[in-house]
């Protein structure tokens, strides 16, 4: 793997694997869906009917456009926040999330078109599936107009909930397990969402159908086209919508599972093992970049069968084909993160301007109510959540390679090139320092109790698992990603201090710290050397 064509083939093969697993999940869901019907209903009797299963397969074919468009909106980076101070919109406000995640995305025409196609695919798939799976022609089934209205509302509801909750943003797991076990863990949430969405779509669909119904006199045949068919007709539409939502949700889960699996960029016997890594780092697709960083972190930490790949990073005495491009990319990510987070902390800005130390207890991270007070703080929270996996992989890669260079770097690339060991150490200490400041002061600010509407939306978005904020009491405005990232930063810093020891004390004074002063960086390093963190 080293060219754009190879990365595209990898993505296509992953999509094919998703389709295979998705088909199996759909057959399982369709069988349970028919078996759960009343014994006298056509759906239950269709368990042994070839025609009924043929209609089910046609309904499955209608879900494939949704699966494909879900792949098109799939990404590893959430959309940047929209901050409008005049309207009081922060990065996490509902109007901001609705506009950025569900409509304009990254402010590019292609993103808007991808989202529009996704909504259209959901609506068309719902209408076609409802038409194919509704009971046989009788007087109790819903007419064509309620079917189209309900299908459109259901498709828009699924598409909006999928995007506004960020389900198209890949979340890479810490522990890689087989697809079967990862999907088994998600089945309960999948079944709950498949039951919830068709139920929520009934009321708005009924209201919209009543508004669209003509007021003039109609014949009996025309009236049947606008009739819901009573309880039996509504139940038939609801059951068909349930299977459609199950199929869409199963595809979404399988996309996340398959596309977050590790991609081995090169074999251990590859003549140029670093070539694919460097090509992936320059690829425009963020998914390919994250595949590369995930593989690089595994190689740097001594993954089985990657000894020659790790040694090849130090095989070039100039570092141009190994250490230098890798370290520059990772350090740029860490420095950008530290800069964005420091910009959200006023005391860090003042300390940098005055050349003095950081006053840890002088920050005012949030305004009243714990909401972000500026676009800089919105950007800081976005970096914590959207770039969490990248930051973790960059720190693991840099610290792992720096520790490996202690015995494997024959040419001294780490010590005689720039960036070198001192740059890695300064970046690690900067991440620890700025995250410590962020967590200490964000934890001291109480969050205003959420409104009833906000608690309801939170319960719906979290599939009913109300957290600590659901009770309405004051909570702490601490992002969980910040705490997890700080733990990773400390672990990676300990990897450096345990490998090089007291030698680092003479290295840290030669480099300008990313935040604070040299004295504070020395004190922080001493705490790591004394194992006090």
**Number of DSSP helical runs:** 23
Quaternary state of the chains: single chain
Compute the average pLDDT. Answer: 83
Radius of gyration: 27 Å
H/E series: HHHHHHHHHHHHHHHHHHHEHEHHH
* Beta content: under 5%
Distance between the termini: 41 Å
Structural class call reads mainly alpha
Major sheet details: 2 strands, antiparallel
Coarse shape: elongated
Helix content: 55-70%
Q: How many individual β-strands?
A: 2
Low-confidence stretches: 350-372, 463-476
Strand order of the largest sheet: 1-2
Task: Write the SSE topology.
Blueprint: H1 4-35, H2 42-45, H3 50-72, H4 94-104, H5 109-133, H6 144-164, H7 179-200, H8 202-212, H9 220-225, H10 230-259, H11 275-281, H12 286-300, H13 307-313, H14 323-343, H15 346-354, H16 375-386, H17 388-408, H18 413-416, H19 421-442, E1 446-447, H20 452-461, E2 475-476, H21 480-500, H22 503-508, H23 518-529
Antiparallel strand pairs: 1-2
What features would you describe in this structure?
The protein is mainly alpha-helical and 533 residues long. Helices cover 66% and strands 1% of the residues. It has 23 helices and 2 strands. A two-stranded antiparallel ribbon has the order 1-2. Helix 1 (4-35) runs antiparallel to helix 3, helix 1 (4-35) packs antiparallel against helix 10 and helix 3 packs across helix 10. The radius of gyration is 27 Å and the shape is elongated. The two termini are 41 Å apart.
